[in-house]
Each structure stands twice: as structure tokens, then as C-alpha cells.
Design a protein that fits this description.
Elements (H helix, E strand, L loop, with lengths): L1 E6 L5 H14 L4 H22 L6 E9 L4 E8 L18 H4 L4 H9 L2 E7 L2 E9 L2
Antiparallel strand pairs: 1-2, 2-3, 3-5, 4-5
Helix pairs in contact: 1-2, 2-4
Length: 136
């Protein structure tokens, strides 16, 4: 698993996406899957940069691995921000109007719907969110 460590700031999203994109392209990942992964990565990283350390800032570690048969991409996001499990919140009811369903929840729902597996743990003072997606 290769990793990168960046400041948990929205300005770093481009470098995070480039890091992951490089691995997906090298593996021959279909464009549709690349787009799904990019959306999930954006949602997760922007949430880390917006909320994990607020109002302060900290670092985020992103690990990526592509392997297996069938090929699967695994991406792990780690931060030492406030403990937060985005999977504990019930899924947003998308049948309700925007006014009735309230703020938040659509991003993690998108991640859960587009990835094959999403898992959260809190270990050694770190939030660890792992997503996996079969790529071929």
C-alpha cells in the first residue's frame, strides 16, 4: 500500500486525486470506475479537511492499493481529528424534499452507494475510513 500525507486542507484535494488517479490508470481501471472513486475521494477528503480538526488543522494520511483477482482498489483515509464515524448516521432519505431532510448525509450516502465496501474504525487516536471498489 502506497501512502501520502498532506495537510487536511481542501487545497490538497487536487494532489490527493492525482495520487489515487495515477494508481487507477496504471491498473487499467475503467473511466467510469475512476470517476466514481474520484467522487468518493472528494467527498471524504473535503469532509476531513472541513471537520476533522475544526477550527484547527492537522494532517491526513491517504493510502492506496490496487491488487487481487478481480482487481480491487482499496483507499484508506486516516486522521487524528475528532473521533467521528460517518457510517453511524442513518442514511439520508432521498425521497424527502431538501427542506425536510435537513443538512448533511448525502455525501456519505453517495460513497456507500458507489463503493463496494466502506468501513470505519477508530484506532490509536486515529479515524480510519476505508473504501474498496472492484475495478474490473
Amino acid at each position: 500500500m502506497e501512502k501520502m500525507v498532506v495537510h487536511a486542507k481542501a487545497e490538497e484535494l487536487e494532489s490527493v486525486n492525482a495520487f489515487i488517479q495515477k494508481h487507477l490508470e496504471q491498473s487499467g481501471c475503467p473511466v467510469k470506475v475512476q470517476m466514481q472513486v474520484a467522487l468518493a475521494v472528494e467527498e471524504i477528503f473535503v469532509n476531513i479537511s472541513s471537520y476533522a480538526y475544526h477550527p484547527k488543522t492537522g494532517e491526513a494520511e491517504i493510502c492506496v492499493d490496487v491488487d487481487g483477482d478481480p482487481s480491487t482498489v482499496t483507499i484508506r483515509f486516516m486522521d487524528q481529528g475528532y473521533p467521528f464515524n460517518p457510517l453511524e448516521k442513518p442514511d439520508t432519505d432521498t425521497t424527502l424534499s431538501a427542506e425536510k431532510r435537513g443538512v448533511g448525509g448525502l455525501g456519505i450516502l453517495l460513497v456507500k452507494k458507489t463503493m463496494d465496501h466502506v468501513a470505519y474504525t477508530y484506532e490509536d487516536g486515529r479515524n480510519i475510513l476505508t473504501i474498496t471498489k472492484e475495478i474490473n
